[in-house]
């Protein structure tokens, strides 16, 4: 079945609306609350999303400009998310919300009409426009989890988690590379139960190494929003066990994740 950019854009809009509900009523003190991401406030989480929405739009509409700015950033020491967050800490919550709304609207409008197979540059290898938009869904959900944990809201999971899970499975090789670990060639079967009750699968059915359980728990693990020990995932085999100890769906340096029992 061909990838639908309209469907991806609609899912991103829905995920954006769910996040917006968590932040729209915050006062300045609320925007300044620290999140589970060390050193980051709710304001930092939102500025991070808005900043990289703008960057994603540039990658799709002005790829040469994106490459030129990336080259300058690399020459200056690389992409530092903490430095980027610091850049926007003078903005009020209202300013950040307006920026997020505007950046997200422009992102969705820019990508909705693209050929899903169009290659767009990014900070690692180039990816398809469909993959780029899927990554924005994953990022929105993951950073939204940090916000939800901070304000004490238990979010209702949806089948939009399939996008997050798909990236998590696809990022297996990256998870090894970013941790400087030799990737095994052993296949892994992933079987996840969606919020709707559907079963999502990846990998050969006869693989001995397996990961199974709730899709929500898998997504929390691969985005490093929960320690694996705090999930209901069943992990079988040495290759699967090793992968889930370092699984990372997001780009950048190796993440530090969350501590066991942190949200008990």
TrEMBL record:
<protein>
    <submittedName>
        <fullName>TIGR03084 family protein</fullName>
    </submittedName>
</protein>
<dbReference type="InterPro" id="IPR024344">
    <property type="entry name" value="MDMPI_metal-binding"/>
</dbReference>
<feature type="domain" description="Mycothiol-dependent maleylpyruvate isomerase metal-binding">
    <location>
        <begin position="12"/>
        <end position="148"/>
    </location>
</feature>
<dbReference type="InterPro" id="IPR017518">
    <property type="entry name" value="CHP03084"/>
</dbReference>
<feature type="domain" description="tRNA wybutosine-synthesis">
    <location>
        <begin position="185"/>
        <end position="228"/>
    </location>
</feature>
<dbReference type="Pfam" id="PF11716">
    <property type="entry name" value="MDMPI_N"/>
</dbReference>
<dbReference type="Pfam" id="PF08608">
    <property type="entry name" value="Wyosine_form"/>
</dbReference>
<dbReference type="InterPro" id="IPR013917">
    <property type="entry name" value="tRNA_wybutosine-synth"/>
</dbReference>
<dbReference type="InterPro" id="IPR034660">
    <property type="entry name" value="DinB/YfiT-like"/>
</dbReference>
<dbReference type="InterPro" id="IPR017517">
    <property type="entry name" value="Maleyloyr_isom"/>
</dbReference>
<dbReference type="GO" id="GO:0046872">
    <property type="term" value="F:metal ion binding"/>
</dbReference>
């Amino acid at each position: 079945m061909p990838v639908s950019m309209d469907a991806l854009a609609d899912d991103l809009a829905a995920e954006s609306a769910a996040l917006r509900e968590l932040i729209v009523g915050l006062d300045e003190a609320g925007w300044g609350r620290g999140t589970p991401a060390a050193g980051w406030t709710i304001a930092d989480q939102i500025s991070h999303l808005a900043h990289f929405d703008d960057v994603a739009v540039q990658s799709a509409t002005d790829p040469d400009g994106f490459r030129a700015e990336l080259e300058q950033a690399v020459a200056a020491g690389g992409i530092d998310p903490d430095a980027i967050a610091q850049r926007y800490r003078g903005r009020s919550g209202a300013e950040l919300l307006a920026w997020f709304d505007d950046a997200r609207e422009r992102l969705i409008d820019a990508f909705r009409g693209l050929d899903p197979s169009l290659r767009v540059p990014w900070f690692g290898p180039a990816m398809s426009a469909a993959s780029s938009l899927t990554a924005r869904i994953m990022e929105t959900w993951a950073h939204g989890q940090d916000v939800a944990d901070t304000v004490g809201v238990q979010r209702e999971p949806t089948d939009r988690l399939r996008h997050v899970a798909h990236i998590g499975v696809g990022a297996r090789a990256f998870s090894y590379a970013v941790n400087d670990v030799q990737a095994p060639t052993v296949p892994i079967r992933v079987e996840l139960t969606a919020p709707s009750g559907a079963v999502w699968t990846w990998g050969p059915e006869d693989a001995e190494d397996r990961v199974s359980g709730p899709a929500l728990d898998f997504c929390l693990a691969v985005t490093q929003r929960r320690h694996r020990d705090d999930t209901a995932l069943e992990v079988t085999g040495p290759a699967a066990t090793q992968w889930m100890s370092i699984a990372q769906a997001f780009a950048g340096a190796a993440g530090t994740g969350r501590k066991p029992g942190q949200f008990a």
